[in-house]
Amino acid sequence: MQPVASTLWHRLDLPGHDACRLDRQGDAWQLDGTALFRHGDGRIAQLHYRVRCDKNWHTQWGTVRGWMGGSAIDFSVARGAHGEWKFNDVPVPELAHCVDLDLGFTPATNLIQLRRLNLKPGEAADAPAAWLDVEEGGLTLLAQRYERRDNSSYWYQSPRFEYADLLHVTAEGFVHDYPRLWLAER
Questions:
Q1: HSE-up of 51 (CA within 13 Å, CB side)?
Q2: DSSP readout, 71-139?
Q3: Whole-structure pTM value
Q4: How confident is the prediction along the chain (186 residues), in pLDDT tens digits per residue?
Q5: CA gap 91, 185 in Å, rounded
Q6: Residue 25, Cβ neighbours under 10 Å: how many?
Q7: Cα–Cα distance between 102 and 11 in angstroms, integer?
């Protein structure tokens, strides 16, 4: 593994932190991180995640392991060569049109979409993702849209969560400022 970049965020809506590193191994990319936070209902969570992408930033697989309150978390997600998704080895055919895995508890996976889309300032694109809901223990569709405003910001929309705001990113593609949710430490 060749480390490319790393970041540390603190959560703004709840107590918590997330540390993530982007690595390159040959033609593949990998995110490796740990999120620690207090959930809205008071449960404390410790989640280690890893997401592997091919050279074009297409998700190949991801894992999330750890715990939330008294419950163990051990999830695996895989995307086959023909776009088929599996969650803990169970097919999820309704997500075949998705290319990206989005982990809902961390801002790290936005980097994958931003790198894959490679938008120029003024360009916009929809980026539907396979969204891992750790609480429900499932993989579902997350509609998203990114519009690149300049070299370091994107207008982001996620209708499912009624969220829309301007994301500020680092040169490597990590979201630095995710308004009302996450802020990278300096």
A1: 27
A2: EEEEEEEEE-TTS-EEETTEE-GGGTT--EEEETT-STTHHHHHHHH-PPTT-EEE--EEEEETTTTEE
A3: 0.96
A4: 899 999 999 999 999 999 999 999 999 999 999 999 999 899 999 999 999 999 999 999 999 999 999 999 999 999 998 999 999 999 999 999 999 999 999 999 999 999 999 999 999 999 999 999 998 999 999 999 999 999 999 999 999 999 999 999 999 999 999 999 999 997
A5: 38
A6: 10
A7: 17
